[in-house]
Write a structure and sequence with these properties.
about 100 residues, 3 helices, Tudor domain-containing protein 5, alpha+beta, OST-HTH/LOTUS_dom, two-stranded antiparallel sheet, differentiation, single chain
């Protein structure tokens, strides 16, 4: 969206995964397959209506295909010990956090 890579190292993180792990109110990290994660944006007051429409659309598509619903097949929580450890705990600027939340919205 901004035309260049995220400055994760300038913000005190080693990777994008570390960055998003530090923002649990903005994005949820869901393990998917070996060494693969799905990042799910967390709806706020301004995006809850859109999130409900998308969820309803997904449910509807699954029902049409006759697929089994596996809502809890993948645990959305993973212990913090499974993520790489940071040397220091940087404080993510509010402006950066807000811009990332807008981007994920």
């Amino acid at each position: 969206m901004i035309g260049r890579p995220l400055p994760v190292r300038d913000l005190g993180f080693q990777s994008t995964l570390e960055l998003v792990a530090d923002m649990p109110e903005v994005v949820r990290i869901c393990p998917y397959e070996k060494d693969t994660f799905i990042l799910k944006a967390i709806a706020d007051e301004t995006t809850k209506a859109i999130a409900k429409l998308v969820a309803r659309q997904r449910r509807s598509a699954r029902e049409r295909k006759g697929a089994a619903v596996r809502a809890n097949a993948i645990s959305p929580h993973k212990s913090p010990q499974s993520f790489p450890q940071r040397v220091k705990a940087p404080i993510l600027p509010a402006m950066v956090k807000a811009e990332l939340q807008d981007l994920l919205s």
